[in-house]
Design goal:
194 residues; mainly alpha; 73% helix
């Protein structure tokens, strides 16, 4: 019970202030315990942070799979659009997803290489689904390996760029950019385009 309370408190604090901006004493205080009591549940702040990251990736992966399962009978382009929105409609994301996005943008410096492994593994899983949807969304056109890789890179660049823009721009401008970028990706999927 206390471990879960600690994780929930830490998740909120890390999502708001990042790894460096949160101390174990703040986490302990927020659940009403003394700092040394944390060590009964977690060896370190780093271990707590990594567990939260694993939880957040698992949560987001499960949500994505549920989305895809619920749309199995839809055309690939509609499913691709749903995945695009899944990663770019950032106003209604969970605290875990918010924590994950912040960590992706600003990873703790001393954990960058370790976190990169988590993000790479997660992206590889997502790539399987996105690649399939890209291939199915070409309106009967063929999608060679080089073009598929370029479109996949474009997809990731768009969702990553929108993640940054979400923090910088007001909602109206963000929505406009989101729609424009989706239109651009859809155009790129037409046969005969790069």
């Amino acid at each position: 019970m206390t471990a879960n309370r600690l994780k929930q408190a830490a998740l909120t604090l890390f999502a708001d202030s990042g790894y460096e901006g949160v101390s174990l004493s703040e986490i302990a205080k927020s659940v009403g315990i003394k700092t040394p009591s944390i060590y009964a549940h977690f060896d370190s702040k780093e271990q707590l942070f990594i567990e939260l990251l694993e939880d957040a990736i698992r949560e987001e992966r499960e949500k994505l799979l549920l989305l895809l399962q619920g749309m199995e009978d839809h055309p690939p382009i509609e499913r691709l659009y749903a995945v695009f929105l899944f990663y770019t409609d950032l106003d209604q994301i969970t605290k875990g997803q918010s924590f994950l996005k912040r960590t992706m943008l600003v990873p703790p410096r001393h954990l960058e290489s370790r976190l990169s492994q988590y993000f790479t593994t997660y992206e590889e899983e997502v790539t399987v689904h996105v690649s399939e949807l890209l291939r199915g969304s070409t309106n009967g056109g063929t999608l060679g390996e080089e073009r598929a890789e370029r479109l996949l890179a474009l997809f990731y660049a768009l969702i990553d760029g929108l993640l940054v823009e979400h923090k910088l721009y007001d909602s109206a401008l963000y929505r406009k950019r989101q729609e424009q970028l989706w239109s651009w990706l859809r155009e790129a999927l037409r046969p005969g385009t790069a």
